[in-house]
Amino acid sequence: MPPDNPPGSQLLEMHHKMKGEIEKIINSENKSQELLKEAKNDLSVSKRAYSSLESEFLSLRTLKEELEKQRDELLGQVKPNRLVVLIDGDGAIFNLDLIAEGQNGGHKAASKLSDAVMQHLPGRNSLQLWVYVFLNRRGLSDTFVRVSRLSANIARQKLDDFIVGFNQAAERFIMVDVGNAKEAADAKIKAVLEVEVRSPQTECIVFGGCHDNGYATALRSFITSGLKSKIILLQSYDEIASGIKTLDLPTLSIPGLFLPEKLNNLVSPQMVHSELPTPQVTPVPLPSATIGKNRQQGKSQVRAETSTPEFTANASCYQPPENPAGGRKVDYSLPLWQQKPPACHLFYFSPGGSAEVDELRASAKKIPCSSMLKVRLSGYYW
After folding, report:
1. What is the DSSP letter of 4?
2. pLDDT tens, residue by residue, 305-346
């Protein structure tokens, strides 16, 4: 009997098995190659994406640095960097002794103001100090002439020199003449106050206008807006205006820098003259010789002499005693308006005084006497 499985069949069967295994290996290799190719493609795409992201990252990082720089600059601008002193020079009048020193007095006033503010606000030496003073120079000049012992020209020159000295004391110290328009200084001060108190760059405002109730409404508005902590009152007069006193704001007082009281009780010769009634002058008859002479010289001269007669002093009108009983000497270390007791008019109108008194007496003689006018003696001057 022949065998069931001849030797050739076993070899053939092994051959088929090996062929199947080889085909599986080849197919697996092909799939691996395809997967490798896909992986390479994905890697290439990823590299390009990474390169793009890296470039975008660098751009964003540069933009971030620029934005941070801008942020720091803006924070520097918003951060408070200055202190502002705002003074109404028509009410807060500087000490007359400082004004009398001219430029040197202006330097002293600026230095005293700066030192007092920085001592009142310690730890702020790095901040800029801005000082604004708004005033009516002509009105203040007239006041200084009235209350000082100096002549008009010298007094006005001293005030001008004082303003120059104050402005030259520091580059941020500004004293401005706003003219003699009504409330001109008030309008300027309110405008600057509105801007500075709301500015984030201004840490604090020292306000020298607490003598005037007209500022109370504006200050109350700032307090309502939550800005009370930025306002300090700079006291000039001994008494603060009632409307501002009720605001309960912190106060800074600088002894010797401002006048402690108002000067409203002082009246200029021009004001006195304007308030007096116009004297009724009775024309004085001219001698015939004078008339004839005037006719020869022309009608214009006659009209000038008859229409505007000159007034002359009459010794019989008033004879002051040489040494008034109980009279006092003037304390020349004090202004006239600070004399205690108040100086007697008789002293100034009596002969034999000093050069300043003589000058004052000469000026007084130019003013009509109201008492004499009432008793119809208007044809005489003092």
Report:
1. S
2. 333 333 333 333 334 444 444 455 666 666 666 666 666 655
Strand-pair category, 173-177 with 128-135: parallel
Angle between helical axes of 152-168 and 137-147 (0-180°, round to 10): 130
Strands 202-208 and 173-177 turn out to be: unpaired
d(CA 230, CA 125) in angstroms, rounded, equals 17
Which tokens belong to 357?
């008194």
Residues in the chain: 382
Residue appearing with tokens 């795409």? 45
Q: What is the DSSP string of 52-67?
A: HHHHHHHHHHHHHHHH
Q: Collapsing DSSP states into helix, strand and coil, what is residue 338?
A: helix
pTM: 0.54
Gap between the Cα atoms of 314 and 377, Å rounded: 11
End-to-end Cα spacing for the chain: 181
Contact in structure between 150 and 109 (CB atoms under 8 Å):
no
Asked if 136 and 179 touch (Cβ cutoff 8 Å), the reply is yes
Neighbours of 150 (CB within 10 A): 16
For residue 292, which amino acid is it? G
Q: Cis bond leading into 7, ω under 30°? A: no
pLDDT one-digit tens code per residue, 142-196: 888 888 777 888 888 999 999 999 999 999 999 999 988 878 888 999 999 999 9
Residue type, 164: V
* Alpha helices for the chain (secondary structure H): 7-78, 96-100, 103-120, 137-147, 152-168, 184-198, 216-224, 242-245, 269-275, 288-297, 299-307, 345-349, 355-364, 370-374
Give CA–CA dist 266/263, Å, rounded.
6
Cα separations in angstroms, 9 against 14, 17, 19, 127, 291: 9, 12, 15, 109, 180
